[in-house]
Design the sequence.
């Protein structure tokens, strides 16, 4: 079944957002973290004279690749296989999980160490592994915090962004039986290091996602900041990588464009501290059994709609999340999906059934900050509008809204009707008007007046004034 | 020059003073203003909410209503963005070659109010007087779609007695977003509260913008808090009385 974790059961965005808005600590954490990343990003993007050309190049490469995805995926499979890798094709989340479980069982492994991967959250891999009696260990610091705290990622790049160090200390104290821990970052990092080191040395199966799968060479590329990923992809003898099919790029050389864009956009670094690239199996060096699972899970369905398929260009840098004023208010959990923020608002509905995410395309004021920040130039506001159109056309819009829009359309159909509508509204507002302001309007306008004042409709519209003036001048 | 005014539906209904101010400014500069009474709405609300068919009908009407107009002035950056950014695409998707041609003709003749003054008419000093501290909200459409840059600020700096105060986090959305303000009222209000806080930090008596929609959000938020800050469309400041000699 195509599913994005359990996003299909998530509450509507406005409902979840309201809950998030009530959590002052979460909002402080999210605001602080996104402001820090935005500041760092702005500094390192500002120093690039060819930033716009890089964005254009990335967009062109991605559009070309997405347009010839079948070709590049087969080329990847061929070259990866030739290098000793084993390529598996998974049509949906459950099939991907099954393939991973089968590989683990065939290799006689019961535990795995994992590099940070959003795609395995998309498929709900950890839950599936645990259901099969297997044990996943997250090794990325943020993902470890999420796993130990039995929490959910709230950000694509910084999954524990919604927590501060005191909250992290409490999670570590409980899960590591370390009542002595303070909330000093160095001490927390050292505790995680000690906790993980044992697993790196003992567990003999590694699992990763991929930032890029290179068709020309059959290589997989993972970038990270902590070095835990380097351990996971080099120490165990069995290595499994789960890759969304949109992550393929044609040539090794294309990394030149993407590695510059990704690090600067994602973490505000000039380059990621660890860039791991591996190609199949190298005898006597690293894993002796390398698997790559290529995941569809709705992606080919996204391809079918030409107006929105550039959604698949995304390189998961999360610059759009950090730039988004809506995300800054709510954090990621309100989006009900591991893909949050503006990209989540367009990706989740397209991957899973639209009716399960009716509210997500509306979770934006269309301010355009996401498009401006996107390193691969995905026109997110355009796609949001397009998805809204798809929802309306499919009959998923609320009845009241549909009625209001039809009424507004009728009123705007001629100036005579608009004049009448203005007059009617002026009379209808009377019970709510006081001192030139409207209060306590009925739904849906109560959504406005519950929070803000609304000016009353003045006694004369502009067109009435104009009419009067023209008559006066003629007289 | 004969300038055709597209007042926009919400300025017509809710903010007639803005329209009057635009007329005053343009006539004071010696231009003739026409108001084609058949006009109604550009279709932005419908389009942004997903009701594309309704928006397309309003686009066709707009193009009919303004046929032959040489210069069209619009005192709303977001409506200009609707016309400039979306009409060509919508017309192309309609498959109607004639509509597409007419949209292609009309788009270059559309000017947002401050664009018209600075770019087309080449004026920044309108001889206005407004002895108050003013901060300027740059709406998302004026910033990221129209790229108005410093045009509104240049116009305001030329106003006699006006002290322009910089708004912190000026590139942040005020949270209006059309139907977003209704469909996601809580988030919208939280964004509005942040913007309102920034406006208050400037200590300005007036918050100005090229969009009354944002000002309705910012002003409505501040008014609910009992704040005295006034929100004014930039045209209403520029129409202010000339300084005494």
Sequence:
């Amino acid at each position: 079944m195509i599913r994005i974790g359990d996003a299909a059961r998530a509450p509507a965005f406005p409902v979840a957002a309201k809950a998030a808005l009530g959590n002052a600590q979460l909002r402080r954490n999210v605001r602080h973290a996104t402001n820090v990343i935005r500041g760092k990003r702005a500094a390192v993007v500002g120093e690039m004279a060819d930033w716009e050309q890089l964005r254009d190049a990335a967009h062109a490469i991605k559009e070309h690749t997405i347009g010839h995805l079948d070709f590049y995926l087969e080329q990847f499979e061929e070259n990866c296989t030739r290098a000793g890798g084993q390529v598996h094709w998974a049509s949906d989340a459950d099939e991907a999980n099954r393939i991973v479980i089968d590989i683990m069982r065939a290799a006689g492994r019961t535990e795995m160490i994992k590099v940070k991967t959003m795609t395995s959250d998309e498929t709900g891999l950890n839950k599936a592994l645990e259901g099969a009696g297997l044990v996943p260990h997250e090794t990325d610091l943020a993902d470890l915090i999420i796993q130990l705290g039995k929490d959910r990622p709230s950000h694509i790049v910084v999954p524990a962004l919604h927590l501060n160090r005191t909250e992290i200390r409490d999670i570590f104290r409980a899960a590591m039986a370390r009542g002595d821990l303070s909330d000093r970052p160095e001490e927390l990092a050292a505790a995680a290091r000690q906790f993980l080191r044992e697993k790196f040395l003992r567990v003999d199966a590694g699992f990763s996602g991929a930032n890029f799968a290179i068709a020309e060479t059959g290589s997989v590329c993972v970038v990270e900041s902590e070095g835990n990923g380097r351990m996971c992809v080099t120490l165990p003898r069995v290595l499994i990588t789960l890759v969304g099919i949109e992550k393929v790029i044609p040539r090794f050389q294309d990394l030149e464009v993407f590695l510059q864009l990704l690090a600067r956009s994602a973490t505000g670094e000039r380059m990621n501290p660890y860039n791991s690239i591996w190609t199949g199996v190298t005898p006597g060096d690293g894993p002796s059994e390398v698997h790559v699972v290529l995941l569809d899970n709705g992606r080919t369905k996204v391809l079918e709609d030409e107006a929105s398929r550039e959604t698949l260009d995304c390189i998961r840098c999360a610059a759009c999340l950090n730039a988004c004023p809506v995300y800054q208010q709510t954090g990621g959990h309100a989006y009900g999906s591991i893909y949050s923020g503006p990209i989540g608002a367009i990706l989740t509905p397209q991957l899973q059934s639209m009716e399960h995410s009716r509210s997500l395309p509306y979770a934006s004021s269309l301010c355009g900050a996401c498009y401006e920040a996107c390193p691969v130039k995905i026109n997110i506001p355009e796609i949001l509008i397009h998805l809204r159109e798809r929802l309306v056309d499919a009959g998923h819009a609320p009845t009241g809204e549909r009625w209001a829009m039809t009424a507004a359309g009728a009123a705007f159909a001629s100036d005579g009707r608009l004049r009448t509508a203005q007059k009617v509204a002026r009379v209808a507002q009377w019970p709510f008007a006081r001192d030139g302001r409207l209060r306590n309007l009925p739904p849906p306008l109560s959504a406005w007046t519950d929070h803000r004042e609304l000016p009353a409709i003045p006694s004369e519209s502009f067109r009435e004034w104009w009419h009067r003036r023209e008559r006066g001048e003629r007289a | 020059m004969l300038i055709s005014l597209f007042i926009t539906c919400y300025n017509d209904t809710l903010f007639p003073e803005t329209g009057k101010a635009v007329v005053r400014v343009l006539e004071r500069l010696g231009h003739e203003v026409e108001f084609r009474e058949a006009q109604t709405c550009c279709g932005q609300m419908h389009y942004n909410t997903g009701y594309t068919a309704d928006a397309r009908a309003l686009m066709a009407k707009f193009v009919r209503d303004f046929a032959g107009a040489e210069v069209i002035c619009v005192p709303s950056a977001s409506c200009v963005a609707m016309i400039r950014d979306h009409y060509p695409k919508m017309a192309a998707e309609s498959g109607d070659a004639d509509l597409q041609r007419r949209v292609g003709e009309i788009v270059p003749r559309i000017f947002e109010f401050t664009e018209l003054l600075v770019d087309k008419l080449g004026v920044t000093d309108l001889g206005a007087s407004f002895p108050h501290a003013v901060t300027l909200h740059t709406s998302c459409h004026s910033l990221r779609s129209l790229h108005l840059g410093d045009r509104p600020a240049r116009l305001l700096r030329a106003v006699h007695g006006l002290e322009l105060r910089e708004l912190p986090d000026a590139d942040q959305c005020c949270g209006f977003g059309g139907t977003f303000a209704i469909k996601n009222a809580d988030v919208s209000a939280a964004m509005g509260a942040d913007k309102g806080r920034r406006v208050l930090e400037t200590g300005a008596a007036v918050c100005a913008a090229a969009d009354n929609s944002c000002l309705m959000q910012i002003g409505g938020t501040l008014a609910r808090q009992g704040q005295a800050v006034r929100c004014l469309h930039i045209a209403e400041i520029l129409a202010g009385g000339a300084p005494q000699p």
